[in-house]
Each structure stands twice: as C-alpha cells, then as structure tokens.
Amino acid sequence: MSQSTLKIISERVNRMVPRREIIVEIEHWGGGTPTRQQIVETVRNILNLPSSDVVVVRKILTSYGACVTRAYIHVYDSESRARAFEPKYILKRNGLVQEQQQQG
What we know:
The protein is α+β, with helices and mostly antiparallel strands. It has three helices and four strands, in the order ββαββαα. A hairpin with a 5-residue loop joins strand 3 and strand 4.
C-alpha cells in the first residue's frame, strides 16, 4: 500500500468463538483500495502475529471520494478454526479454499 496509514478502530476477543475481531481504518492517498492480501500483510506486521495465525478479511468498505477504507478482520489461531467458523464464500475470497471444477 503506497502512502497509506492503518489505524486500529476496535479490537476485541470473542471467547465463544476463539478469535480476535478487529476493525481497522486505512487511509490510502494516491492509490486505489488496498487488496485483501495487502491488508492481511499489513495487519500481520503491525500486530506481530505468528505465521500459524490465520487472518481473514471479512469486509472492505471504501468511502466514495475520501480515500478511506474500513476493513473488518477476524484472526484465528489455526486454519482449522477459521474453516469451522467462516462461511465458504469468505474463505474463497481470502484464498483459504480452492474453487472446485464442475465435471460434465
């Protein structure tokens, strides 16, 4: 992300579903909306997460004309927990599940 700043708006631990729920705000002047992969890498670096933790970007909302994006993120301690609690379409968007080919 070129010339961008990331600010954590809220962070909480959900003990019922063992995960961290984070809302971040990204200011990206001079560039487009950051990709999911860019957001994951930035969050992983800022929070100093181990490589075993799985970062899932749930939603990215960009304000029109403001160059400000809000991202809703879940952090799990393992990929199996992420697969158990996240819907398949979210896992596909984050590259954790490969799309199956239809035979016919």
